[in-house]
Amino acid sequence: MKSVRQNKLAAILFILPASLLFFTIIIMPIFMSGYYSFLGWDGINQPTFIGIGNYIELFTSQVAGFPKSLLNALILAFLSVFIQLPLSLGLALLLSRGVKGEKFFVAVFFMPVLISTVVIGQLWLKIYNPEYGIVNVALNSLGLEKYTRTWLGEQDTALIAVFIPIIWQYVGYHMLLMYAGIKSIPTEIREAAKVEGATEGQIDRYIIIPMLKPIIRVCVIFAVTGSLKAFDLIYVLTRGGPAKATEVPSTLMVSMIFDRNRYGFGSAIAIMIIALCFFFALAIKRAFGTEED
Amino acid sequence: MDKEIKAVANEFHTPTKAIVRKKIKFSSILTYTVLGIWAAVNIFPLYWMFTFSLKSNKEIFGDNIIGLPKEWLFSNYKNALTKGNMALYMLNSAIVTGITIILTLIIASMATYALTRLVWKGRKTVNNIIMLGLTIPIHAAILPVYLILDKLKMLNSYQALIIPYTAFGLAMSIMICNGFIVNIPKELDEAACIDGCSVYGIFFRIILPLMKPALSTVAIFTFLSCWNELMFANILIDDAKYRTISVGIQTLSGTHTTEWGPIGAALVIATFPTLILYSFMSTKIQKSLTAGAVKG
Known about the structure:
A: mainly alpha, two-stranded antiparallel sheet, 14 helices, globular, B: mainly alpha
């Protein structure tokens, strides 16, 4: 058996395809992005080494708009953590109290997660359509004409209009994670608390939620890093417009690289996205404390 | 027996119990209201999509905005599939997704076998590096991947998507397989070995058949991420011949801005495979998509 396990040729054959792919499509590109981020390069002319020039421009140039895009991503992260997650938690708690049609509700709540963001984006484009969209039609029929707007086209409403579908889509995802977590808590604990006279609300507040902390931590990490990476829905709904009102780092990166041929600057944004994701993941882990590990 | 029932009935009639019961009733009404509202918020966009995919502009834009279609216009579907090229985009997506799933299953299960069952120097390091891939946002590699594929003259082909999709799915797939293979007792390998199975025989005859549940999880997860992917499909494919469904919808909605019916039909067509799959195996799909978070 030992000689079979230590078969070197077999080990190489089995791991080779994965490591080859992983190296050429993930590891190497990350380092290439890191290198490009120090270049002034338009993809056509010879690149020039400009040190941290791109990073300085990233944080100081208002025209390039990175600070604004980062702020938007952070607002999204904030809304995800303080609106999306509490909503998910509330639904998970309600569902796990044992309601009729539990499975049905779980299935329905999870559905938006499965549907392509392009489809969801196109649907919301129609929902927000200024002339025929459901939002404005509903406002008109309620006699609230003065509140109708070009939701995605106006500076002050575009950002929130884009965030609503993003937050809505993933409520079900977090709900399911939390729901599965609650279900794995032994029912005896809940029953014992009931016998002692605790109400449902008290059980949730003092028993379930504290026991759910590791899962809530995962959800917070996903919500924050997901917000930093957000791309699809914003790209479909506004492409970062109007006038950069809804720009986030990913959309800015793509438009810098592929519309404006700023390869070096775009790569600097890519590196910042990776760095920020790692930073926030670690910071959140730290903030939640390590006592439960 | 009778006595007991009477006792219970009596208890129900005492005032305190009645109050408690009323409270419970009220709170459960509240619970169902909240759940019902959220369910409606989730179902409505889909319902709306299905209905407007069968309507004429006249109905969508005024006569009948949220009702069922008065006249079922299946011609919208015909338009989307032929004039809108959705049939071709579907086929392209099916080819890319299908091959990616097959490659991912083969490569990830092989890697898992090497990482968990075979003994070689550096396997811990390789495993750690691959697991790091879980946290790296794929968007960050888009430019180098674009340049590499350009150098290899592979932009505008099925491979242009299949290769990156497979690579980016690997970390998650290997993690799912790793979590599963540890529960397959090593004694099985040993028994097979004693019976004369080679290292390859153990993989193909023992491990692979037993890994089926993990592999189906990986397949579902890969299907959804490829079928719905937008950024890479948009950037790496320029030629309409290889365009996948998510980019196809974008193109269609760009050219049919005033005709909503065919766009709705295209959206339904794109969503249909997912919903069919979901209606048959909702629990399995829910587990597949959250598998990554369990260890995260």
